[in-house]
Amino acid sequence: MSNTETHPAEVRCGAGEEGAPAAGVEILTARDVPLGGPRAMTVRRTLPQRARTLIGAWCFADHYGPDEVSRSGGMDVAPHPHIGLQTVSWLFSGEIEHRDSVGSHALVRPGEVNLMTGGHGISHSEVSTPDTTVLHGVQLWVALPSEHRDTAPAFQHHVPAPVALDGGEARVFLGSLAGDTSPVGTFTPLLGAEVTLAPGATVTLDVDPGFEHGVLVDSGDVRLDGTVVRPAELAYAAPGRRTLALTNAASGAARLVVLGGPPFPEEIVMWWNFVGRTHDEIAAARADWENEAERFGRVEGYPGDRLPAPALPNATLSPRRNPRP
Predict the structure, then answer these.
(1) Quick one: which residues bind Fe cation (predicted)?
(2) How crowded is residue 127: how many other Cβ atoms within 10 Å of its Cβ?
(3) Which residue from 98, 237, 258, 259 lies 20 to 30 Å from 195 (Cα-Cα)?
(4) CATH topology of domain 16-294
């Protein structure tokens, strides 16, 4: 998904600290961001923000829906570029048609993960299908480490099998959890999973103590280690935990997405749809997109123009660092 803000901020994201002891749960609230257009979908963005800019290598999290397409017009994001990252698409309902400049033409469906590697440069489009009545899901980005950020663009698709939990169910789309491991390749250790909880259930998940974790609640009255996490909120748990205790105190089922990874050891600069290391690198990528450079290729089959790049900011913002756990 594109970051379609008209005036996207440039964000310098600092490295976290490895080996820190477990601390309390931090709650990150979302801000509403319209995707653009006369009947714009609105997404709820929890990463990046001032309180926290990364969870592991996860650097961007949009949560949207349930959105009635008859009212919003659905999703129609024209071809746009990416560098230095991987995009992770995960749906709860609806269907999105994906086309990219490496020739991929695929559908994003509920319970199926699509991962696209931007690397040196890729472009893609995303359009909800005509049969979609309710669109609901998350769009996530992963920052690539320096040694891999110029890797060749690529696309992967995987359908994780549901894993039964005592009081719930998990679908592991990246990394390992609850005895299941995703075959989808990433460039840093990561965890990504959808977890559903039965009414009144508590599920305790064994996790890597070297990871920091995020719990994004979609629905239900969820508690993470006793801390209330409301729908659309993202709870942050520092490294040091060997388990995550998730409780659904609601009378209906709860659904959430668990993210994780070791603290990212590099400072990155995010602007629009680019993840780089310097302002000059971002400016060069923007110029390449505007000049239709070969690095971004072409998206075939989209019935319209590609997205123009916004204007660059007049000044580089000061570095933002994650607070110490």
Answers:
(1) 80, 82, 124, 126
(2) 19
(3) 98
(4) Jelly Rolls (2.60.120)
Cis peptide before 66 (omega within 30 of 0): yes
Rounded distance between C-alpha atoms, residue 150 and residue 281, angstroms = 12
- How many residues are given for the chain? 325
pLDDT tens digits, one per residue of 140-182: 999 999 999 999 999 999 999 999 999 999 999 999 999 999 9
Please answer whether residues 39 and 74 qualify as being in contact, where contact means their C-beta atoms are separated by less than 8 angstroms.
Answer: no
List the domain boundaries for the chain. Answer: 16-294
Sheet holding 191-197, edge to edge: 26-28, 234-237, 212-219, 254-261, 191-197, 168-174, 163-165
Which has the minimum average pLDDT: 71-75, 250-254, 288-292? 71-75
Known binding residue 120? Answer is: no
> What is the model's pTM?
0.91
CA angle 138, 67, 190 (to 5 degrees): 5
Structure tokens at 81: 């570029």
The rounded distance, in Å, linking the Cα atoms of 11 and 318 is: 8
Higher pLDDT, 41 or 168: 168
Q: DSSP string spanning 207-270?
A: --TT-EEEEEEEES-EEETTEEE-TT-EEEE-TT-SEEEEEE-SSS-EEEEEEEESPP-S-EEE
Asked whether 70 and 272 are in contact (CB, 8 A), the reply is no
105 annotated as ligand-binding: no
Count of CB atoms situated within 10 Å of the CB of 285? 26
